[in-house]
Amino acid sequence: MIKEFNTQTTLNVGLETLWTAQSRDFIFIVPKVLPNIVKDVQVVQGDGGVGTILIFNFLPGISPVNYQREEITQFDELSHEIGLQVIEGGYLNQGLSYYKTTFQFTAITEDKTLVNVKISYDHESDIEEKVKPTKTSESTLFYLGCLEKYLLNGA
């Protein structure tokens, strides 16, 4: 049964700048935002919209796995919402059978954006859950904080 975990954060970056970074420039920005974790991001299939498949290659020794393949399953420019589902490697090699992160960005002011994060997950029924949603949400919030710093430093 798929479970959900929700969290949110406020970033001191305008909505359009943040949306562009997370939706259009994502594959170029992630390795710059997380240079000690992500080696590169490759587009395997698609044009950046729904159905696009990405491979995140991690630096050696950072993670128990060296890559994670994700598919963009939601992409809505009007509501500024993007969903990324892990389809191979990464969390799926750590005891989860389903893992999806959905980001929704909402302007608070011209230079502040609320980011709602929904993590949907399920774990293999015959093993104890090894990957906790609170832990993976910490990783997501860490990424968003690094993205904020990167964008505020003139990226």
TrEMBL record:
According to the UniProt entry, its GO molecular function terms are:
abscisic acid binding; protein phosphatase inhibitor activity; signaling receptor activity
Q: Which residues form a coiled coil?
A: none
Q: Where are the transmembrane segments?
A: none
Q: Which GO terms describe its biological process?
A: abscisic acid-activated signaling pathway; defense response
Please list the residue ranges annotated as the Bet v I/Major latex protein domain: 29-151
Q: Can you cite an annotated GO cellular component?
A: cytoplasm
SUPFAM superfamilies, per database record: Bet v1-like (SSF55961)
Official protein name in the record:
Bet v I/Major latex protein domain-containing protein
